[in-house]
Design a protein that fits this description.
The structure holds two protein chains of two kinds. In chain A, the strands form three sheets. Chain A has a seven-stranded mixed sheet. By secondary structure, chain A is α/β, with parallel strands linked by helices. The N and C termini of chain A lie far apart (46 Å). Chain A is globular, with a radius of gyration of 20 Å. Chain A is built from seven helices and twelve strands. The model of chain A has no long low-confidence stretch (mean pLDDT 92). By secondary structure, chain B is α/β, with parallel strands linked by helices. Chain B has one domain: 3-Layer(aba) Sandwich (Rossmann fold). Chain B is 37% helix and 24% strand. In chain B, helix 7 links the parallel strand 7 and strand 8. In chain B, helix 4 crosses helix 5 and helix 5 packs across helix 6. The longest helix of chain B is centred in the C-terminal third of the chain and has 18 residues. Chain B is globular and about 55 Å long. The chains are: A alpha/beta, B alpha/beta. Chains A and B meet through helix 4 and helix 5 of A and helix 2, helix 4 and helix 5 of B.
Chain lengths: 301, 279
């Protein structure tokens, strides 16, 4: 979207938050239903948005239905606040919701829309995290028919999903799902927690913040309510494993920029012979760590 | 002997059905298609009893409704009418009115108490996962979620059904027809079900393989004391396996009794023709 673009000044044409009031009400109702049945994929009438499906329209509709003029919004894309997708979405919300604040600081935000990461800074009860979801149904891997998938969800029949994990263990000695790890919510429904890395899955468990997941193309909203169990699907004797970022010698890699050893790292392959760089994927966390470090060196100096 | 399955008045109509369906179909009128509404009466008023550890044969030509009966009892399809009571072998006190259960309870019963071997391995096996994975799926369905245990059970079952254990991580796609059938039997037996349905298990296999599969079934029956319903059009299979037999034609049971009696002294004209043609 052009940064000079302005919405028509006629207030009657666009209501606050771009969506009309009926659309927002419908989305809010679906959100309430999704929270009441943790992990259940609530169908909703996903609206046409002024961007292609697959660019976060599901998350955006949830955000626009929830946001009020006293909210502070943070938008992240793969952890970063300054990538194209995050910047465009933030700009769109700023245009259509006059009066809201935006921020890059996780702890300042009341509403966080995220593409494929959960912030490193622990979320609080006052915050809502909205995740953009491309494929809401984990069973799509094993069952092509949606009618049968619905029955399988209803009956809690996830044996074929576990068979997929069994096959992984047989062929590769470990489970090869890197992201979208099937996670059981509140002991029944198994969700696709959007393409967050395995590293983030434990953050859903007993999360203090409400987590809402919106799929625009697939027209589904589901939720992980605060203080709800979220358990990744595993075998009794094969524990769930997250990415460890250990190098060949078994030492935990540190962020090349801020030096943090407790964050999810992106692998950045350099041109030429330069060694691969590892850097925090969460840009806000990285900036804060860096600022702290610089303050410390100043004090020491 | 304890009765584990009691079926009364089982009927299945494909199509919308009409009040005249049952009267205008059957062996007497030589059709199972209702002339008034065009519905197919696949089974009508089928009743049977099955005791613990017994093998009951259902015999009949193609389209006589024998597979339909088994599919209904395994919850692959829902019957149009009828009742089936399954009693648990251990104390017979636990009873399930099979067709009155909700879908989740039916699935539980099917996963924990029943096993099914289809004629076509494509129906019983998932060819996208390994042979061991197929057995794992069945174990996972019955709430076993310990990887080591699943692996060990799968290995034992495949060894028992004489599938090379070295090939357990291969897809059954690569197996011969007889091997696929053995994997299917291993899968059906994974949860040690008290009741096993066998639908034309040896049809389409060559004779020596047929004989070994039948031997295996008999051995398993003696070892585990599994009750079985064997559906086949092969009189040899009936003679070898079944103690009692039902003969079906156009969806009706036309004759039932001890297998020897039926094969040596058939009463119904159709059975007489069937036995005569086979000899």
């Amino acid at each position: 979207m052009s940064p000079d673009y302005e919405l028509p000044t006629n207030e009657a044409a666009y209501s606050f938050g771009f969506l009309d009031e009926y659309a927002k009400r419908e989305v809010r109702r679906c959100i309430l239903k999704a929270i009441s049945i943790p992990g259940y994929q609530t169908p909703y009438a996903s609206r046409e948005m002024p961007m292609g499906r697959g660019f976060g329209t599901g998350g955006l509709q949830v955000t626009l239905s929830l946001i009020g003029s006293n909210d502070t919004l943070k938008v992240i894309d793969q952890g970063a606040d300054d990538s194209v997708n995050a910047v465009s979405l933030r700009h769109f919300v700023e245009l259509t919701c006059p009066g809201i604040d935006t921020t890059e600081r996780t702890e300042e935000a009341t509403l966080i829309q995220s593409r494929h990461r959960i912030p490193e800074t622990p979320l609080t009860e006052a915050q809502v995290l909205v995740l953009q979801v491309p494929y809401p149904d984990p069973l799509v891997l094993v069952e092509p028919s949606e009618v049968r998938r619905k029955v399988m969800h209803g009956e809690g029949d996830y044996s074929r999903l576990l068979t997929k994990l069994y096959e992984d263990l047989v062929h590769f000695d470990e489970i090869t799902i890197a992201h979208r790890y099937p996670t059981r919510i509140n002991g029944h429904y198994v969700i696709d927690p959007s393409p967050i890395p395995r590293y983030d899955v434990p953050l859903l468990h007993q999360s203090k913040a409400l987590v809402l997941l919106g799929a625009g193309r697939e027209k589904k909203i589901y939720a992980v309510p605060p203080y709800t169990n979220a358990e990744p699907l595993v075998f009794d004797d094969v524990p769930f494993r997250t990415e460890d970022f250990d190098d060949a010698s078994g030492k935990r890699r540190a962020c090349a920029r801020c030096g943090a050893t407790d964050s999810f790292l992106d692998e950045i392959i350099q041109q030429g012979d330069a060694p691969t760089r590892w850097q925090c994927s969460d840009s806000d966390y990285c900036n804060q760590q860096l600022a702290q470090r610089q303050a410390m060196t100043k004090v020491n100096a | 002997m304890k009765k584990i399955l009691e079926v009364r008045g089982l009927s299945k109509i494909y199509g919308r059905g009409c009040p005249l369906c049952f009267d205008s179909t059957g062996p007497e009128v030589d059709t199972n298609i209702c002339p008034h509404c065009g519905s197919v009466v696949a089974a009508h008023n089928v009743s049977l009893d099955l005791h613990e550890g017994e093998i009951l044969g259902i015999m009949g030509e193609s389209g006589s409704g024998k597979s339909t009966v088994v599919k209904n009892l395994f919850f692959d399809e829902a019957p149009s009418a009828g009742e089936a009571i399954y009693s648990d072998g251990s104390d017979s006190k636990q009873q399930w009115d099979m067709f009155a259960l909700n879908a989740a309870r039916q699935r539980w019963l099917r996963n924990h108490r029943f096993g099914m071997v289809y004629q076509n391995p494509h129906l019983g096996l998932n060819f996208n996962v390994s042979a061991g994975g197929n057995i794992a799926e069945r174990l996972l369905m019955s709430d076993i979620s310990h990887y080591g245990e699943i692996r060990e059970r799968a290995r034992q079952l495949l060894a028992r059904t004489e599938v090379l254990v070295d090939r357990m991580d291969e897809s059954p796609k690569k197996f011969s027809g007889g091997m696929q059938q053995r994997v299917q039997i291993a899968k059906a037996l994974a949860t040690k079900p008290p009741l096993l349905y066998l639908d034309e298990v040896t049809t389409g296999l060559d004779l020596s393989v047929q004989a070994r599969i039948l031997d295996l079934i008999l051995e398993i029956q003696q070892e585990l004391h599994t009750a079985m319903i064997v559906v086949t059009h092969d009189l040899g299979v009936i003679r070898l396996l079944a103690g009692r037999t039902l003969v079906m034609k156009y969806g009706r049971v036309i004759e039932s009794g001890l297998t020897d009696q039926i094969l040596e002294d058939p009463q119904h004209a159709y059975t007489q023709r069937l036995v005569a043609s086979a000899l």
